[in-house]
Backbone:
């Protein structure tokens, strides 16, 4: 079912999405057993599972990953060979950050899958259609929580707006590989969400950029994260599971 | 799909039928007494005259952790069918699985063995324990990715919904 070859510009977009899904999925798993309440624990677990599943499915379509095997490709590349975004890689030790990142990321991810569904042919286009059918749960999760938490107390709003601002300061990094139209659509969706939750988004969307507009530059904390992801495989790279 | 275009001979038709019967014995690790055929996971079965079987499956969710286990179980069940020399299992990206693909048998087993229900066409739920229609959604996130949680107002039982 794999494409024998892939147009290099398309492969670059697929790699960026695959690495994003891998990193954000792995970051979401940090909340397993630690979510602020049971449903959140389960929700982040399910969302993480989806993103990791999508990462595997995308890696399987990449000729470079097929050549080395997807486990080796997904885990054992040099840091500079990853194309994940700072938004996906960022370590969120506060649940507010994780929730805001999940919302912003899934808004963006949905646009990337829609782009792939329109711009590619089967089986990649089929994978995109399938992924989109699974993504609606992620957006509903963000909406159901943020529409209640954002306007709940002054402290909640202050913290969530601060998180939103921090991640919007990584927009150049996230959108550097695709045409500007998608970023504009994303910003409109984000502004619409914020307005619905009682927050004025214009100033937030003009947050100064803190991340480089270059997906080959890893975020602070990536090395420690990568070491954690590869801790087991590094014990014996030839082991069969 | 193109492989299916080759006209089946009597022999391959019989082999295909035997493979389908074997697939009926493969169960879902999540529901160990419900067959993957009844759950609607089997999309294509193709057997060549020299006994090569290809089984095309569709996952309930692309991130289902049981996919590798199901593929192994399918290979094991099909390989022992007399006349089969070789088995390939492929996970298809399309069509997308939906609850409409489940059989009545699977629905009854889900209800009686697991208190798991499927949503009706109109979106409502029927309690698998007491039969009441007074069942409300509680949480989108259930114990697994493929199930959400609802609550029966009448018998006050937690009900899981396969989605």
Residues:
């Amino acid at each position: 079912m794999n494409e024998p070859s892939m147009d290099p510009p398309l492969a670059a977009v697929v790699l960026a999405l695959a690495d994003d899904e891998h990193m954000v999925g792995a970051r979401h798993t940090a909340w397993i057993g630690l979510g602020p309440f049971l449903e959140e624990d389960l929700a982040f677990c399910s969302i993480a599972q989806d993103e990791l599943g999508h990462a595997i499915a995308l890696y399987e379509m990449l000729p470079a990953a097929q050549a080395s095997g997807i486990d080796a490709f997904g885990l054992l590349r040099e840091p500079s060979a990853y194309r994940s975004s700072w938004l996906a890689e960022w370590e969120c030790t506060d649940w507010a950050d994780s929730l805001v990142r999940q919302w912003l990321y899934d808004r963006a991810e949905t646009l990337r899958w829609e782009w792939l569904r329109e711009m590619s042919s089967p089986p990649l286009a089929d994978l995109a259609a399938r992924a989109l059918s699974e993504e609606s749960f992620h957006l509903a999760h963000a909406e159901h929580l943020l529409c209640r938490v954002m306007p709940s107390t002054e402290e909640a709003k202050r913290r969530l707006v601060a998180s939103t601002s921090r991640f919007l300061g990584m927009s150049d990094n996230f959108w550097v590989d695709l045409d500007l139209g998608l970023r504009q659509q994303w910003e409109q969706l984000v502004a619409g969400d914020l307005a619905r939750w009682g927050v004025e988004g214009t100033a937030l969307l003009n947050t100064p950029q803190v991340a480089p507009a270059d997906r080959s530059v890893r975020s602070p904390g990536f090395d420690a994260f990568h070491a954690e992801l590869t801790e087991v495989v590094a014990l014996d790279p030839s082991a069969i599971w | 799909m193109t492989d299916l275009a080759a006209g089946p001979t009597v022999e391959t038709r019989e082999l295909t039928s035997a493979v389908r019967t074997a697939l009926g014995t493969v169960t879902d690790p999540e529901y160990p007494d419900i067959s993957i055929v009844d759950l609607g996971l089997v999309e294509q079965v193709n057997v060549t005259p020299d006994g090569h079987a290809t089984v095309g499956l569709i996952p309930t969710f692309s991130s289902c952790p049981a996919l590798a286990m199901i593929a192994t179980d399918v290979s094991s069940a099909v390989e022992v069918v007399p006349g089969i020399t070789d088995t390939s299992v492929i996970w298809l990206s399309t069509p997308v699985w939906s609850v409409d693909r489940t059989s009545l048998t699977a629905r009854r087993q889900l209800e009686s063995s697991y208190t798991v229900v499927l949503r009706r066409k109109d979106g409502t739920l029927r309690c698998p324990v007491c039969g009441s229609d007074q069942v409300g959604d509680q949480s989108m996130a259930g114990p697994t990715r493929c199930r959400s949680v609802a609550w029966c107002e009448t018998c006050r039982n937690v009900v899981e919904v396969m989605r």
